[in-house]
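Predict both folds.
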Amino acid sequence: MTDHLIQLVGPGGAGKSTVGPALAKRLGVEYVDLDDQFKVMAGSISGYIDTCGYAARNVDLYGDLVRKIDRCAVFALSSGFMTYPLDIHSNYGRYRADIATSPMTFVLLPSLKLEICVAERFVGR
């Protein structure tokens, strides 16, 4: 399923939205940011979380978007996507395993310093 995706996984500030579009342009393929697509679907992520929860719908959206990609694409995922409970969605375990084992998945970190990598980031709020 994900063999045609270059997946960039990382926390906010790691460079997914900088590296992703540049890589997609260089390869001549589509760039998809899961958070941006969620905002198109639901508006404010924070507002959606407050009223409806988030993880299960985000997993649904991931599955929908991946199925629509018929050739290679660069796909950005927040590292939080990889931390949901396995029972949050019937397909989540398979999706997470596919992402984790794909040779086309790259984890981006905002720094090589542990303290910076694990710090909660509030950029733009």
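Second protein follows, with its predicted structure tokens after the sequence.
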Amino acid sequence: MNADPVRARRARFARASQLGQRLGYGCFAIALVAFFVGLGTSYSTAVVVIVVASLVAGSITLLPGIVLGYAVKAAEREERESGN
């Protein structure tokens, strides 16, 4: 484990960012599959609920994951450029 608490904290944020992105994109994949299943069969209430719920859940988890990922990358870049 890193001796530097800042780097350890940044690593935790990076893992949380990856998890948020995976969950968000996974929810979007579920929504896409459910949409095409509904397109091929019929748009029952259950299919519509799955599509909408997956899109909402994906948006809620993906946005912070992406923002946090950019923040971690910016912090690492700034640290490299400052020579620390």
